[in-house]
Amino acid sequence: MEFPQDLRYSSEHTWARLEGNRVTVGITDFAQEELGEVLFLELPQVGHSVTAGQSFGVVESVKAVSDLFAPVDGTVVEVNARLDDEPELVNREPYREGWMIVVKASNPEAWQALMNADDYQATIT
Amino acid sequence: MATAWRFLDTGCNDAAFNMAVDEALLLSHEAGQSPPTLRAYTWSSPTLSLGYAQSVAKEVDVAACRQHGVTLVRRPTGGRAVLHDQEATYSVVIPLRLTAREVSITEHYHRIGLALAAALRHAGLAVRLERPSVLTTAPRTASPACFAAMSRYELSATGRKLVGSAQKRGRRSLLQHGSIPLSMDRQRLFACLRVPADRRAQLLREAYVSMVAVNEIALAPLDAAALHRALRQGFVDCLTDGGELIAGELSPAERRLAEELQHTKYGTDAWNLLNPAAWRQRQTACLTE
Asked: Between residues 30 and 49 of chain B, which touch chain A (CB distance below 8 Å)?
């Protein structure tokens, strides 16, 4: 199971990559393995506001429907349209091709307050 | 001291109210305003419930539903179509975490499955809790009907699926609900689903082999009330960790939330016949008008 060191993580099993004031968000390797095959994603539209700790979308897998929780506050500036037709990218490449949204963070410093890879890994083992 | 659970019997209601109450219970528990709850309910008219992302256009014959007197509703949980009619329906809302440990999706199905198995055995049924058939990927030739697929620690009797269940997970709370059919009208179920004409007869045959209802195997006929009493016993035996299961009512806040969800979500064509995204867009449009 992967825990990339350059990312930060939330207790709701989303990861966040910071580039300037843009934060790319997806679900972790642990989360995708838990869920099993992802069948469908409902993601917000560009321009939608997200709030840390609140739902920004929904994922349905073979096992369950689950809310997706934003790790930071901000505005959605990009959505991964490939996931409409290829939701399985979330399983195959959760940290790369399976990214879900990019958020223009209203407070990029909040990214630092998220868990690092080692702390996140400790919560699930 | 173990947490006291609530047992809630909301009786016989329509599809929109039934789904609205399940979501209201989940949201209330998420907000810390409700105890863990086992709910018992039944349906006032035959209803085809669809999984969260299931496509009506591709998988449902809406005209046939109307013709057969079947109401359509989209569930908050995933999975495939279930025809609800003569059945005992349950839902359970519990914390995602037990103590400090997060419980996996599969483990939740297992724990609740053990309680369901205990309940059905109390009712005199010989059931088996099936281990997941390593179903981490969807079968390519999947039937649009839920009961045709066995996964997730589900319950079988005489080698056929007896109880279908599905989960919706929030931030700290879990809703699992499921259907225990007393009888099963397989013909009506497949009449309401869009299946290729050349597969219809085969799927119907498979439905007799893969799906079963309580009164097809019970030694003496059972009704929903008997199964709901058995569910209460099974959950006390297996799931409440020594906590009591106290009969209660919807709180005023839960009832208000359920009525709002009934009217603005589960009673709307946008939610039921289109899809969740279309419904959300209409909600947003209404708010900005």
From this structure: none
Question: Which chain A residues are Cβ-neighbours of B102 within 8 angstroms?
Answer: 124
Q: CA nearest B75: which of B150, B175, B3, B158?
A: B175
Query: What's the start-to-end Cα distance of chain A, in Å?
Result: 11
ipTM of predicted assembly, 2 dp: 0.93
> What predicted TM-score, i.e. pTM, was given to this entire model?
0.93
Distance in Å from the first CA to the final CA of chain B: 50
Region for residue B235 given its phi and psi (left: phi exceeds 0; alpha: psi -120 to 50; beta: otherwise): alpha
Residue for token pair 């990009």: A78
Q: Among partner residues B52, B151, B168, which is closest to A62 by beta-carbon distance?
A: B151
Rounded CA-CA distance B158/B142 in Å is 22
Tens of pLDDT along A32-91?
A: 999 999 999 999 999 999 999 999 999 999 999 999 999 999 999 999 999 999 999 999
Instruction: State pLDDT tens for residues B31-52.
Output: 999 999 999 999 999 999 999 9
